[in-house]
Design goal:
It is built from 3 helices and 13 strands, in the order ββββαβββββββββαα. The chain is mainly beta and 193 residues long. It has a 6-stranded antiparallel beta sheet with strand order 1-2-10-7-12-5, with no helix packed on it. Strand 3 and strand 4 form a beta hairpin.
Length: 193
Amino acid sequence: MGQIKVEHDVNGIKGLCVVEPQVFGDARGYFVETYNYNDFAANGIDVTFVQDNQSASRRGVLRGLHFQKQFPQDKLVRVISGEVYDVAVDLREGSETFGKWYGILLSAENKKQFFVPKNFAHGFIVLSETAEFCYKVTDFYHPNDEGGLMWDDPDIGVEWPMPRGMTREDLILSDKDRVNPDYREFLKERGMQ
């Protein structure tokens, strides 16, 4: 027990957590327990994960900002190769921090994990040459349930770091992420504006 250190409510956003696992290293390399239900539950993250996902991306790929509409998922994300800047935006109706974002550097080197509760938009940008990104989720993937927000919406104001030698125009986005609605459009769709 006690193999993790959890920073709760990062940036004043309830439920958003940074998890630092204990790393055991010696001349051979290292060992780290990346997930143990008992440790997480004892630290206030008492959820049941049902699916693990992994993606590989190259420098300058930006994925996001994504969320699920009817089947929201808690996510536990980490990087096993390379380095990304990972972002979560609070979209929980009635939350004191609705629309507020937080970003963190996740890398194979720092081994930090980021717990993103249900009803947050999530995304990341790859800062290293390549990166492998892993995440556990608490609901299964529903292809017709995807939502998105424009990654560079000024009303949200995420301060994305640019990968070395790149500008915003060089970033690599999916066709879908290029046309995600902006924050005001999102609010109108939800009847909040």
